[in-house]
């Protein structure tokens, strides 16, 4: 329904106010008509190539001055003394004057300067989140700076320089987060810290001092043999850990994309045999060459005065000695006008013929001569300026082709562009295309030898790629490659066109970027619509990205499909790309996306003061990298409004042509051509370069047909009032009120039930403005008005159910072929737990939906989207107009529908507001269609087929990976083969019908089982009116049932809507066994016996199936082998646990097992008195002032509902630190080890899992080290200190600060609030109720801080950590056993830790390619999954893929040890 993530991302732009008071109008009126002849526009005060942190899987946006909330761009000092001045001559500007040349207004709060030692700094005060700051030190050296003998050294130096820092350790336990990463061109160290010292809140200087000391020490890092040995081991382990199939696919893509330059062989992870060979002096030499103040930039953004930032920066980092040999184009923050003119002249050279060396040389000489003349005319303001300028000239040249300010050791990187209207010679074709990208801050001298060497290197590589004969024919279509691997289950295609990064620093450049985003959004929505007509795609996207990591802009068409349908899928995608390039977009499309851009800009501008410092610094670094102007949000919105007002259809269609010109025809003279096409396919797909080339030839010769856009009529409302029951069938009043009679709104709420339930009602007495109510239709409503994110809100619809509510499959069903289990003392995975599985089937037969039906039903809803008589296309475009994003998540216990949206009218005054649009969608999700009544969600067969295909691909990919196979094997062993908690088989999914998928979800979405939680910028009366109108008026689905239909018939009268019906009573009225099941599955553990006795509900639906080891029937040890070409290893340790609220698998409270319950009379009374004083009898605040939680007796404190959740969260935090410290830091056996609690909320019981990566040779040692760490931390009365290696109070306090700080920071997020509010009113989660401290974690900080070391010892005991016989252990390996002869042979062709995959280039023999340089890097180990668009309706799928261009070396927060 709402597969609009990429389209919305393409529309993303910064903004501010309503257009009626456009700041640009005031700004434009104050600008001169023409720029002074003797001055250039203000540009970035630092070099234009910097790293940014979004992975390639997010390459769905055109980076411009308005991406993210802070836009992009030119860094400018806040005064003339620290940077280039802003042109603000007050002169009249006529309405017809051309605004295009005018410079964009830079953010007035930005300050750029340079310390006496050469370090450049960029400062910005930002108040969100309050009391925190971000400090990022960027070293202008990455893997592309390495020599052939240094491959991997930039990343290893990053590890040694920071992980060995004693001053970094001063940040531990302070609530700080600190890390580092390495990419092609940069190494970045960062610290996110509180402003005040946690132990002395009055001290607001010490934390900045510590952070700057830690970052400054990087420039003077200590190098010791012990650190080299330890970090070398960590890097080698990291090399194995990240080498997933997704990562290898990404590497293959980048190798093809950058085949003409050294980026194809300079991934940050480096070469294994080189990393193993380096001596201490080798890494020291690299550090000395690149780690200099003049080769670094420090970004500081946060809730601190600029004066304090600058003073402390000068005091702490300014003392680092300068090195005059470090290249620099800056002088005290000023960009030399001469240097700028040289850069601009070089950038104007465009795409030149490589062989036309004289033309290049002549133009460079002329530019240099002009620049030197200008330099002589520039009188330095001070002697310091003069000295700095002299130092710059003395320092020598910075290679202009490097695209950044850099040391003299940098090897030039040259790209071959695909064209795009930038050619000087229109007939230039591969391999002759070449350009020197714009270099803003090049010093006055240019080393022509480096430039010449870069040109020769590029020409040589392109000549190799072009080849001769048939290969030459392929070369005209760019680099063509096929990556084949046995672990791939589907085909993906990636078509690229590389162009130079175009800086956005003038009004005209900004307007052009908006034209591109409009065209991009139109194309993506068309692809979305196209993908629904037939289940061809797993996903299909077209994106434009300015990649500062790769020093180029990339247009990419990315798609995934079934191997048998690749021609139809690729042809369909290319057809649409070619059509938009040739015919452009329509006036209606332009109007729609212009409105969406403007609305999004206004949304982001409204949030200008609430954008987090972390987001600000990311945008700022990216802006500096690309040479864009960094604008204030309010000003950005004004510029956006003025630019969109001036934008024409011709300009948008010109941008549309640029997007797809490379797909129109590429073997004709003067035509653009793709830079690269790579196909990634299963080994048995028989997909060859010749087949792809023939197919492309047929596409090129085919006629481009204008698309039929007749289905693009978009409604302004999904549910007109006339379709609602009385009294909500009336239009809003003319006076602006939502409803004529507020009494009718009040009547929709069940005030009698609210009066009886603590915490419910308007006077529930909650903190943070929270209100919890119950509608008479049965829907539970939680909401919180907030202006933390102005004009934005999040809504979560939660229903009990999830995979655990499905019917368990019978024994003997097919099992995954991806992994084989081998153990001399245990049965095979396919035979595990036959008896218990059979019993489970017998219990749940007739009571639960079929296996896989809930997961498939949720995915089918996401793939569909027709509502209330409107087509999927109309609904999707409606959501695009409204900027609504939706995600459906199926978990073990719940199904969540997550909405993010604007609260105001963003699609025009004739349209409903964003928040009303979401309530319209939610209502129709809960109203199944009946015969003759089209309202509600429409279930479609083609959506089901796409869902089946998508889930099969997802499950097969998971089962075939090392990580997925190991996890699945452990779960299967722990649950005795319960299939509800493992991957779904293809046969199971293919056997399900549309009716089964529909019935499963419709049952869960019954109003009496639904909870809606909302947080955002709205007023309470508005929210309650919308809830009453759309949810309170839901029909009664239990009154009658049509005996001839599967679904209950609706009763349209509002008056008969029932009060809440107990699940068992409701289930008895439903017509089919499947429909009865979910209500019973939603029953809470506390009602389990009642449900079993009275309604026959099976206990299996109410309890976790995770069991401790039983050596008599099931062994605790697993050994897994996964087919793969590369040797890797992963270890698990696992065990059982209580659920989040302390409920054990048998339904008892963990506090009973620990001897806390039953309470004494005194403790019971104290706990009751605390509850009464804290919340009152109705859940509100009592009359007396409540005592502090820590003042209660130990047992009374532990009796509070949040205690188990808080104690378990602290257990996870301290065990993560302990494992990292012991297994990585002390023993050097891994890069990463972590402990994860899967604490269920609805099911009784839970489980925990330790994951550690290692090499196959060290896997047993790593597994033993993990087991040892767990056993040694557990309480042992026989030990002098109560344990072999007990926790300390400092360990506990550090963990407490991290949890509290994380929670406090997240409280500014609407999404977080919608998550913690959910499940509060669900009977299936008895530990979390409106009237107790667990509701929205309201007592979280106090409860966490009150936890003691003794509490943690009790939880260690509950997890049975003292007894390793209670552990499951698993070692999963891939790749062939190590053979000495093979290892020696592999040394000569080291492929950065992995075996070279089956990859070939259509336009070059394998013997002509340097496969020994095929490098790998990693992905950030703890990075959140990224959003991936797919051809389904309600949102996006979350997935995780590696990013070989960035290497986040030190994975953990500062408190991780």
How would you characterize this protein structure?
The protein is built from 46 helices and 31 strands. With 1457 residues, the chain is an alpha+beta fold. The longest helix has 26 residues, at 507-532. It is globular, with a radius of gyration of 32 Å. The two termini are 45 Å apart. The strands form 7 sheets. The chain has a 7-stranded mixed β-sheet, with helices on both faces. Strands 13-14-12-15-11-28 form a 6-stranded mixed β-sheet, sandwiched between helices. It has a 6-stranded mixed β-sheet with strand order 16-17-22-18-21-20. Helix content is 37%, strand content 13%. Helix 1 packs antiparallel against helix 16, helix 3 packs across helix 9 (280-290) and helix 29 (941-960) packs across helix 30 (962-974).
The biggest beta sheet reads: 7 strands, mixed
Strand content: 5-15%
Q: What's the rounded overall pLDDT mean? A: 74
Q: With helices defined by DSSP (H or I, 4 residues minimum), what is the helix count?
A: 46
């Amino acid at each position: 329904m709402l597969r609009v993530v990429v389209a919305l991302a393409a529309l993303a732009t910064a903004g501010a106010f309503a257009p009626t008071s456009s700041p640009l109008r005031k700004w434009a009126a104050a600008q001169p008509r023409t720029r002074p002849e003797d001055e250039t526009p203000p540009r970035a005060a630092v070099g234009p190539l910097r790293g940014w942190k979004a992975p390639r899987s997010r390459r769905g946006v055109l980076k411009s001055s308005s991406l993210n909330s802070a836009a992009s761009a030119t860094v400018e000092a806040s005064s003339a003394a620290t940077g280039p001045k802003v042109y603000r001559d007050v002169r009249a500007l006529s309405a017809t004057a051309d605004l295009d040349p005018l410079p964009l207004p830079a953010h007035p709060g930005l300050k750029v300067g340079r310390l006496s030692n050469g370090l450049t700094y960029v400062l910005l005060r930002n108040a969100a989140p309050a009391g925190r700051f971000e400090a990022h030190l960027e070293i202008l050296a990455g893997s592309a700076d390495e020599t052939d003998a240094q491959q991997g050294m930039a990343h290893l130096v990053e590890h040694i320089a920071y992980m060995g820092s004693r001053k970094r350790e001063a940040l531990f336990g302070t609530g700080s987060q600190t890390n580092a990463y390495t990419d092609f061109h940069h190494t970045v160290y960062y610290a996110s810290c509180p402003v005040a010292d946690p132990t002395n809140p009055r001290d607001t200087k010490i934390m900045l001092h510590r952070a700057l000391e830690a970052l400054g020490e990087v420039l003077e890092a200590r190098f010791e043999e012990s650190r080299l040995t330890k970090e070398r081991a960590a890097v080698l382990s990291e090399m194995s850990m990240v080498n997933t199939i997704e990562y290898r696919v990404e590497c293959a893509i980048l190798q093809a994309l950058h085949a003409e330059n050294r980026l194809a062989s300079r991934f940050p992870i480096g070469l294994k045999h080189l990393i193993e060979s380096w001596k201490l002096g080798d890494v020291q030499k690299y550090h000395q060459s690149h780690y200099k103040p003049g080769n670094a930039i420090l970004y500081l953004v946060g809730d601190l005065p600029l004066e304090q930032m600058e003073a402390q920066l000068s005091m702490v980092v300014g003392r680092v000695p300068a090195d005059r040999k470090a290249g620099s184009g800056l002088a005290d923050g000023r960009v030399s006008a001469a240097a700028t003119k040289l850069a601009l002249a070089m950038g104007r050279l465009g795409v030149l013929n490589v062989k036309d060396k004289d033309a290049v040389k002549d133009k460079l000489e002329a530019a240099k001569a002009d620049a030197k003349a200008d330099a002589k005319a520039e009188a330095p303001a001070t002697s310091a300026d003069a000295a700095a300028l002299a130092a710059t000239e003395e320092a020598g040249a910075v290679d202009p082709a490097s695209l950044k300010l850099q040391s003299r050791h940098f090897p030039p990187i040259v790209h071959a562009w695909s064209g795009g209207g930038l050619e000087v010679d229109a007939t230039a074709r591969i391999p002759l295309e070449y350009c020197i990208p714009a270099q803003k801050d090049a010093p006055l001298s240019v080393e022509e030898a480096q430039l010449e060497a870069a040109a020769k290197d590029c020409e040589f590589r392109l000549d190799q790629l072009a080849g001769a004969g048939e290969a030459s024919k392929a070369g005209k279509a760019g680099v063509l490659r096929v990556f084949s691997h046995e672990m791939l289950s589907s085909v993906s295609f990636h078509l690229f066109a590389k162009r130079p990064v175009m800086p956005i620093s003038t009004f005209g450049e900004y307007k052009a970027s908006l034209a591109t985003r409009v065209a991009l959004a139109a194309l993506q929505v068309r692809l979305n619509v196209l993908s629904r007509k037939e289940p061809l795609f797993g996903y299909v996207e077209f994106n434009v990205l300015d990649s500062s990591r790769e020093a180029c802009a990339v247009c990419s068409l990315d798609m995934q499909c079934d191997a048998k349908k690749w021609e139809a899928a690729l042809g369909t995608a290319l057809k649409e790309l070619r059509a938009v390039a040739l015919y452009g977009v329509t006036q209606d499309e332009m109007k729609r996306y212009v409105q969406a851009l403007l609305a999004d800009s206004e949304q982001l501008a409204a949030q200008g003061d609430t954008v987090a410092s972390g987001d600000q610094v990311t945008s700022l670094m990216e802006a500096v990298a690309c040479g864009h102007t960094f604008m204030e949000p309010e000003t950005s919105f004004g510029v956006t409004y003025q630019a969109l007002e001036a934008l024409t259809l011709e300009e948008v269609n010109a941008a549309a042509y640029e997007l797809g010109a490379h797909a129109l025809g590429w073997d004709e003279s003067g035509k653009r051509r793709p830079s690269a096409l790579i196909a990634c396919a299963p080994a048995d797909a028989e997909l060859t370069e010749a087949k792809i080339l023939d197919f492309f030839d047929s596409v090129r010769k085919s006629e481009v047909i204008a698309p039929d856009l007749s289905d693009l009529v978009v409604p302004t409302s999904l549910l007109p009032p006339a379709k609602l029951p009385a009294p909500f069938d009336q239009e809003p009043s003319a006076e602006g009120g939502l409803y004529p009679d507020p009494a009718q709104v009040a009547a929709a709420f069940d005030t009698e039930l609210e009066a009886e339930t603590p915490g419910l009602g308007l006077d529930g007495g909650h903190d943070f403005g929270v209100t919890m109510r119950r509608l008479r239709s049965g829907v539970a409503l939680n909401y919180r008005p907030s202006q933390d994110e102005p004009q934005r809100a999040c809504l979560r619809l939660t229903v009990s159910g999830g995979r655990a509510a499905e019917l368990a499959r019978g024994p003997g069903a097919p099992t995954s072929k991806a992994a084989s289990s081998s153990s001399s003392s245990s049965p095979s995975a396919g035979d595990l737990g036959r008896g218990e599985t059979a019993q489970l089937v017998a219990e749940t037969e007739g009571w639960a939906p079929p296996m896989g039906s809930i997961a498939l039903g949720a995915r089918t809803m996401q793939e569909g989207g027709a509502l209330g008589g409107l087509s999927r296309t109309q609904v999707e475009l409606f959501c695009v107009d409204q900027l609504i994003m939706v995600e459906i998540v199926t978990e073990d216990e719940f199904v969540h529908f997550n909405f993010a949206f604007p609260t105001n009218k963003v699609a025009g005054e004739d349209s409903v507001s964003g928040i009303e649009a979401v309530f319209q969608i939610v209502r129709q999700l809960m109203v199944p269609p009946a015969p003759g009544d089209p309202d509600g969600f429409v279930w479609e067969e083609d959506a089901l087929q796409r869902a089946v295909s998508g889930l099969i691909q997802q499950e097969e990919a998971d089962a075939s990976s090392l990580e997925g196979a190991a996890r699945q094997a452990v779960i299967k062993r722990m649950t005795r083969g319960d299939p509800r908690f493992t991957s779904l088989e293809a046969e199971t999914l293919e056997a399900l019908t549309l009716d089964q998928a529909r019935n499963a979800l419709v049952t869960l979405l019954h109003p009496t089982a639904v909870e809606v939680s909302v947080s955002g910028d709205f007023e309470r009366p508005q929210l309650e009116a919308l809830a009453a109108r759309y949810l309170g008026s839901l029909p009664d689905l239990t009154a009658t049932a049509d005996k001839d239909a599967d679904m209950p018939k609706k009763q349209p009268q509002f008056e008969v809507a029932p009060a809440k019906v107990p699940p068992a009573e409701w289930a008895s009225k439903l017509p089919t066994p499947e429909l009865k099941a979910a209500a019973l599955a939603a029953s809470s553990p506390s009602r389990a016996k009642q449900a079993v006795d009275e309604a026959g509900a099976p206990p299996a639906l109410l309890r976790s199936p995770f069991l401790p080891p039983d050596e008599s029937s099931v062994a605790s040890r697993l050994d897994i082998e996964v087919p793969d070409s590369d040797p890797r290893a992963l270890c698990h340790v696992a065990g059982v646990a209580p659920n989040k609220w302390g409920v054990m698998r048998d339904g008892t409270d963990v506090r009973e097992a620990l001897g806390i319950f039953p309470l004494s009379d005194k403790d019971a009374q104290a706990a009751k008195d605390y509850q009464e004083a804290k919340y009152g009898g109705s859940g509100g605040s009592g009359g007396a002032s409540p005592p502090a939680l820590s003042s209660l007796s130990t047992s009374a404190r532990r009796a509070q509902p949040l205690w188990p959740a808080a104690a378990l969260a602290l257990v996870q935090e301290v065990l993560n630190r302990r494992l990292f410290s012991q297994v990585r830091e002390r023993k050097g056996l891994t890069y990463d080890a972590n402990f994860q609690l899967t604490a269920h909320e609805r099911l009784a019981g839970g489980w925990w899992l330790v994951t550690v990566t290692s090499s196959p040779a060290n896997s047993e040692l790593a597994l033993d080290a993990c087991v040892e760490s767990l056993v040694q931390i557990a309480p042992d009365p026989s030990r002098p200190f109560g344990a072999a290696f007990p926790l300390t109070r400092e360990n506990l306090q550090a963990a407490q600060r991290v949890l509290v700080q994380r929670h406090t920071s997240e409280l500014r997020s609407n999404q977080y609030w919608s998550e913690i509010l959910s499940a509060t009113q669900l009977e299936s989660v008895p530990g979390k109720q409106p009237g107790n401290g667990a509701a929205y974690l309201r007592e979280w900080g106090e409860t966490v801080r009150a936890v003691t070391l003794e509490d943690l010892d009790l939880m260690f005991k509950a997890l049975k950590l003292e007894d390793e016989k209670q552990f499951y252990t698993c070692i999963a390996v891939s790749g062939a056993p190590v053979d000495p002869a093979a290892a020696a042979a592999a040394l000569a062709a080291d492929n950065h830790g992995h075996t070279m995959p089956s990859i070939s280039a259509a336009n070059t023999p394998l013997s002509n390619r340097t496969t020994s340089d095929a490098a790998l890097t990693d992905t950030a180990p703890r990075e959140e999954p990224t959003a991936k668009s797919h051809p389904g309706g309600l949102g996006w799928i979350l997935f995780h893929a590696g990013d070989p261009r960035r290497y986040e070396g030190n994975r953990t927060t500062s408190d991780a040890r």
